[in-house]
Amino acid sequence: PPIRQHTTTANNNVHVSTILLRNNKHKYNIQFTNSAAAQQNDFEIPTLVEDEVKCGDDVGRDLITHIKHLHTSVLDLTGRGLYERMNVSVTNDSSDCDFYESICRNERYVLISHGTQDDPVYNFGNLACLQAFARSWENLTSMPSRKCVISKSQDEAMRIDLMHNVTNYGFVDGEYRGYRVRGDGRFIKLTECCVWNCYDDNGEYIGQAALFDRLLSPIVDTTDAEKENNN
Fold this sequence. Notes:
Helices cover 29% and strands 31% of the residues.
């Protein structure tokens, strides 16, 4: 029968937990780190005055420039930008504070992106993203995006296919079934999302981004695979 084991160690107020999921075919290890602040649900994005915060790989972009790149990229590819998709009234003429409050501090629509590394690392997540993934900004932006899925699982194969389709066709928009691992070991059950390639003002590829509605993607304790194994 399937076995789910959970162990936690603590050092300097940082808790590292490991979940072992095992059945007769596979053994999955999920490791996640929660700071004391994250355990208190203190998920906050950097403020606009924190100039040292950059979104990107070697060059680095400030929060607003990065969001504008994500917006123009999905608008050019799909005909619908972030503002329409997130139901906000921000326009290209809005102030940086308008962008920050409407996009960065949005608590319903998860906006997340990763860079162009061989093993891409997340470089941005808005407030809804940090809450949905139960991770601090520091934790999220130091984590390779592949670690958001269970290793050697069907979800990992589906994610690889998704990334390949986005790379080849520019974007994927609509129904998508899959799970993403939260910082507390629970799961986000995705039902639909938009994933797209991102470019800067010079047309240079800067990574990929994803957007989904938290109301359509519930937080669950187990995946469908676990439930099937338990029956």
